[in-house]
Design a protein that fits this description.
This is Peptide/nickel transport system permease protein. This protein is mainly alpha-helical. The chain has two domains: 61 residues, no CATH class; 216 residues, Orthogonal Bundle (MetI-like fold). Helices cover 76% and strands 3% of the residues. It is built from 15 helices and four strands. Strands 1-2 form a two-stranded antiparallel sheet. A hairpin with a 4-residue loop joins strand 3 and strand 4. Helix 6 packs parallel to helix 9, helix 8 packs across helix 9 and helix 8 runs parallel beside helix 12. The two termini are 12 Å apart.
Length: 338
């Protein structure tokens, strides 16, 4: 088991390194002069050259990538140009490992920006995950237990109708009507647990998290329903029914356990995708997470921030794949051999 875990972790490290190289190539090999945006509209050519050297844009892409990888382990000092650091040592900014870069537009390290935005996105993703898992599994089981009935068709049909709506439409509806017009919930504003407690933290996250949960709900309802129905046709389920076990016990204790394995895979990958930033939802509710940070960086063409967000999102997906593979290997030992 441990040998399998080590192999998957080593493969994940290789994938992350390859992803960073591809990301740097795509972003920094573009014909757009990133130094012009980092310096500002009114900068002279001399000031742009200084900015270009300070951020390392004057070096080849491979050398920039090597410096970035080194910064992940040892940290970096900005500006990157040694002459500028010696000329103005009081303006040197140290970026501790793992250093993701420096935003000249915001005059702060990207580590600081991510440390402020990431807790918001994690909180939003966790609450959304809990909502869509509970709703998807419960409604899926209910539909499977009432297969072919009006309730079964109603559940599947309703979730598909909700799934047909784009995320911004659901977000705008919940914000404008549920929160503002009807006043069912207070206007959502992110609050840390340390500031307002768990109840206020959860209450402010409920509407944006519900927006994300509704998008995933239909898939989990249909998957749960299909896997439970498939499990109910197995021989061990027939044996359990022949022994006279209650219907609920057969479904929840035996059929659902077999259906959880593929759901774990879906949940892990979907959760990792959300951790990369729920861009539309965070924008509508004005939540200062990675999604809103991405929009702001894109508007200002803040290239280091965009690169960092892409790498963070990709790393979450790779790590989620590793965790899911390890869980699979634990549940089904045959996976370790393959």
């Amino acid at each position: 088991m441990w040998a399998y875990v080590v192999r998957r972790c080593l493969m994940g490290v290789v994938l992350i390194l390859a992803m960073t190289l591809v990301t740097f190539t795509l972003f920094f090999a573009t014909p757009i002069d990133a130094a012009r945006y980092a310096c500002g509209k009114n900068c002279s050519e001399e000031q742009r050259d200084i900015t270009r050297a300070a951020l390392g844009y004057d070096k080849p892409v491979v050398e920039q990538w090597a410096g970035f990888i080194k910064g992940l382990f040892a940290g970096r000092d900005f500006p990157l140009d040694e002459a500028q650091r010696e000329a103005a040592p009081e303006q040197v900014t140290h970026c501790a490992a793992p250093c993701l870069g420096f935003s000249n537009f915001n005059a702060k390290t990207i580590n600081e920006m991510v440390s402020e935005a990431l807790p918001v996105t994690i909180s939003l993703s966790v609450v959304a995950l809990v909502l869509w898992l509970i709703g998807g599994v419960l409604f899926g089981i209910l539909a499977a237990m009432r297969q072919g009935s009006f309730l079964d068709r109603g559940i599947v049909g309703a979730t598909l109708v909700i799934y047909a709506f784009p995320s911004f439409a659901i977000a705008v509806f919940l914000l404008n009507y549920v929160a503002i017009k009807w006043g069912v919930f207070p206007y959502p504003k992110y609050t840390q647990i340390a500031d307002g407690g768990v109840v206020e933290w959860f209450g402010n996250l409920l509407l944006p998290a519900l927006t994300l949960a509704l998008l995933f709900l239909a898939g989990y309802v249909r998957m749960t329903r299909a896997f439970v129905l498939e499990s109910l046709t197995e021989d061990y389920i027939r044996t359990a029914n022949a022994k006279g076990l209650q219907r609920k016990k057969v479904v929840f204790k035996h059929a659902l356990r077999a259906a959880l394995t593929p759901l774990v895979t879906m949940a892990g990958l979907d959760f990792a995708t959300l951790l990369g930033g729920a861009i539309i939802t965070e924008r509508v509710f004005n939540y200062p997470g990675l999604g809103l940070l991405t929009i702001q960086a894109n508007a200002a063409f803040d290239l280091p921030v965009l690169v960092a967000v892409v790498l963070i999102a990709g790393s979450f997906v790779i790590l989620a794949n590793i965790v899911v593979d390890v869980l699979y290997a634990y549940i089904d030992p045959r996976v370790r051999v393959g």
